[in-house]
Structures are given as C-alpha cells and as structure tokens.
Amino acid sequence: MSALTVEKVWKEYGDQIVLEDVSITVEPRAFVALVGASGSGKTTFLRLLLGQETPTRGKILLDGVPLPPEPGPDRGVVYQRYSVFPHLTVLGNVLLGMEMSGSRHAARLFGKRRAAAVAEAREMLAQVGLDHVEQKYPAQLSGGMQQRLALAQALVMKPRVLLLDEPFGALDPGIRAEIHALMRRLWHEHPMTVVMVTHDMAEAFTLATRVVAFERRRDRPEEKLRYGASITRDIPIWPPRRAGLPSLIRPGRDGPALAIPQSE
Ligand SMILES: Nc1ncnc2c1ncn2[C@@H]1O[C@H](COP(=O)(O)OP(=O)(O)OP(=O)(O)O)[C@@H](O)[C@H]1O
C-alpha cells in the first residue's frame, strides 16, 4: 500500500557526493515534507524517487519492489512551475496522461473510452475547482489555478506516490493558504503517499505527517564536495495526522475538509 523504503542510498555526480547513506521508511499514506538548506540534495532525492535518476549505491523499494529505473504512472509529480502543457486546454492537460497510457501510439482515445476519460477528467477538475475553465489555456489562468491544474493532471492518473517539488513556492500567501486546504483535502481523499520538498517550514508543519531535514553532517569548506547530505532530523507531527480521518485531538484542524476552496 504505497510504502517507500530507501536503503543506504548514495548519489554522486562525478567527484561530488550529493547524498550520503540516506535511509528512510515511509509508511503508506504518509505526507512527508523534505526541508533543508539550498543545495542539500532535496530535489535530487525526489528525482531518485521519481526514477529520473538512479542511486549510485543503495536501493529504493515501492511496496517492497525495486523502483523501475524510469518514471511511471504510479508516481505523479508537480513542480513549482511548468508542470502543465501550455498548448493544451485545461481539459486537454488532464486528459493527456489517460490518452497516452490508453493508446500508446496514437495518444488519442475514441468512442466510449474517450467519453469515459473525459468524464473522469471533468470529475477531477471539479475536485480542484476548475470545472468552469476547462476550455481555457494555462496562460489564461492565475498561478494558483495553474498549480491546481498540475495537481489534477497528476492525480487523474491515480499515482501511488505523489512527489511535489516546491509546488506552492511561487504563490502569494493568500492563494497559498487556499491551495493548502485543497492539498490537504486531496491527500485525505486519494489513496496516495505524498513526498513534498519545501523551503517553507510553516507549510511543512501545516500539511505533513512528518518533517524530514536533509543536511551535511560534516561541512569542511575545503572538502565540501566530498560530503553528501543525509537525514539529520525526522520529526513526526503531533497530534498525529491520519489520512482520511479527523484529528483525534483537534478535529477542526486536520480532518478531511468538506468545502471546495473557491478558485480565484
Ligand atoms: N544532474 C546533475 N549533475 C551534476 N550535479 C547535480 C545534478 N543535479 C544536482 N546536482 C548537484 O547536486 C546538489 C544538490 O542539488 P539539489 O537541487 O538536489 O538541491 P536542493 O536541496 O533541492 O536545492 P534547492 O533547495 O536550492 O532547490 C547541487 O550542488 C547540484 O549542483
């Protein structure tokens, strides 16, 4: 059920050691926030989980099975920018993944299969509050709406793991609070494990079940490249958050939200 196991993973680029002996077990349905100084290897770690990079040493397992050495539909990803295709409409963006996986050569679906995919895409757009703009293009949307679209595009493929690389980092504070509420609801409602890189500690503690810090344990400036970062802090959030369930102690804080945040 979407458990990630990272065992003694190292990542080196030439002479530079970026990650050093990283081990972590992520339980199914967790929401892990990765924090750490710039250059500490957070994005590199996310790319390893995505399958865009392979570890120099060590292994990564998803539900006990080694990760395939390439990205696949079981892992969705949203970046800070450029996650969506500018030349496709909102609906086209959400349909694309289904069309690609349903028809590898033509990348198009026809007849009943297309109608079912369109219905599914529309349902997903409604979940993120974008059903009223399905014929618009990304450039016609605000930054917050583009990130909602990126979430819809990733989630419609039903990933077991959703990887987020500073997805809300470029948004204004008001919009960010709104999209946090949406993100929390999506995590409650979709059976996925989430790993999110963020520079924003408040965001990490607002959304995550666990906050994990990457840091170089040794940092002699003259030998900087010889030391990679590893996990130095692993903080469980208290009171615990559990996917799909209200918080036992503060039900108003963390439970599955009922309202769909208004799109701007
Ligand atoms: N493909 C690559 N080839 C060579 N070096 C790389 C490559 N990808 C990352 N690095 C190096 O790995 C180090 C860690 O980069 P990474 O982007 O993972 O850090 P980060 O913690 O995500 O930083 P930031 O918070 O600034 O985004 C950097 O020194 C970077 O130059």
Task: Outline the structure in words.
The protein has 264 residues and is α/β, with parallel strands linked by helices. The chain has 2 domains: 1-74 and 159-264, P-loop containing nucleotide triphosphate hydrolases (Rossmann fold); 85-157, no CATH class. Helices cover 30% and strands 25% of the residues. It has 7 helices and 10 strands. The strands form 2 sheets. The protein has a 6-stranded mixed sheet, sandwiched between helices. The protein has a 4-stranded antiparallel sheet with strand order 2-1-4-5, covered by helices on one side. A hairpin with a 2-residue loop joins strand 1 and strand 2 (16-26). The longest helix is centred in the middle third of the chain and has 17 residues, at 111-127. It is globular and about 60 Å long. The model is unreliable at 258-264 (pLDDT under 50). The protein binds adenosine-5'-triphosphate. Residues 13, 18, 36, 38-44 line the site of adenosine-5'-triphosphate. Residues 4-241 form the ABC transporter domain. GO terms for molecular function: ATP binding; ATP hydrolysis activity. This is NitT/TauT family transport system ATP-binding protein. Keywords: ATP-binding, Nucleotide-binding, Transport. Pfam families: ABC_tran.
User: Treating each run of at least 4 consecutive H or I residues as one helix, how many helices?
Assistant: 7
Number of individual domains: 2
Say which CATH homologous superfamily of the largest domain is assigned: P-loop containing nucleotide triphosphate hydrolases
**CATH class group of the largest domain:** Alpha Beta
Ligands (ions, cofactors included):
adenosine-5'-triphosphate
Give the end-to-end Cα distance, rounded to a whole number of Å: 35 Å
If classified by CATH, what would the architecture of the largest domain be?
3-Layer(aba) Sandwich
Q: Specify the helix fraction band.
A: 25-40%
The count of β-strands is 10
Mean pLDDT: 89
| Sequence of secondary-structure elements | EEEHEEEHHHEHEHEEH
From the alpha carbons, calculate the radius of gyration and give it in angstroms: 19 Å
Largest sheet: 6 strands, mixed
Organism: Neorhizobium alkalisoli
Keywords: ATP-binding, Nucleotide-binding, Transport
Family: Belongs to the ABC transporter superfamily.
InterPro entries: AAA+_ATPase (IPR003593), ABC_SmlMolc_Importer (IPR050093), ABC_transporter-like_ATP-bd (IPR003439), ABC_transporter-like_CS (IPR017871), P-loop_NTPase (IPR027417)
